Amino acid sequence: MAERGGGDRGGFGRGFGGRGDRGGRGDRGGRGRGGRRPRRETEEEKWVPVTKLGRLVRDNKIKSIEQIYLHSLPIKEYQIIDALVPSLKDEVMKIMPVQKQTRAGQRTRFKAFVVVGDSNGHVGLGVKCSKEVATAIRGAIILAKLSVIPVRRGYWGNKIGKPHTVPCKVTGKCGSVTVRMVPAPRGSGIVAARVPKKVLQFAGIDDVFTSSRGSTKTLGNFVKATFDCLLKTYGFLTPDFWKETRFTKSPFQEYTDLLAKPTSKIVHTVDDVEA
């Protein structure tokens, strides 16, 4: 009696094993998950920007991400980063389950931490929660690209060769975790734990001394504190920046005529849909 009730009504009688039958949806022609992936890739190739900044990047009016940082323009589309910094690499730092107590019980989701960088002064951090691991990773990569920041590099002693370390002592904090970075001589390498070392490698810093305190076992706060450290490298005003700043026009002001033109819209008629 219990078996019949659980099987007919879809109750608790069949347990979690019965959910595996849902995978058969992929057999319905092109409606399965196998048919969606190529369509998403073609949509990404045909990027249609929805912001003014995206239109300028698509038309090659803005050719470097430094132009965006110079005028503090907000980046709302991750395709802008893909176009201006094509050498970005990403790595998943951690995937952890998080739970929320509801009336029906505990709702479990997955939280992903992703770091992106080009090892040349640009690094980003993204955190995303989702019901599925793949969706969380994909969303974290997009958020990491949107949060890409410039990292200022400097010298330990004489200014010989290319910048290789942090320009000054910087401190970052998140929760109970505090990370401190100290400039190191050339050839010292990255003296850090596994988590900040990966972030520093993506940022393009070759030599640095680090110290951390607090609950560094909490990887999320540890990587956020490291990211906060790198964010503050451009917040320290050194004598190099004491020169008089010459203000230039913002790209929005410079290309006002281009942005004033209406964007082309794709209009589907009834005949096209029926065909």
From TrEMBL:
Residues 8-18 have a biased composition (Gly residues). The keyword Methyltransferase does not apply. GO terms for biological process: translation. One of its GO terms (molecular function) is mRNA binding. Keywords: Ribonucleoprotein, Ribosomal protein. Gene3D superfamilies: 3.30.160.20, 3.30.230.10. Residues 19-30 have a biased composition (Basic and acidic residues). Transmembrane segments: none annotated. This is Small ribosomal subunit protein uS5.
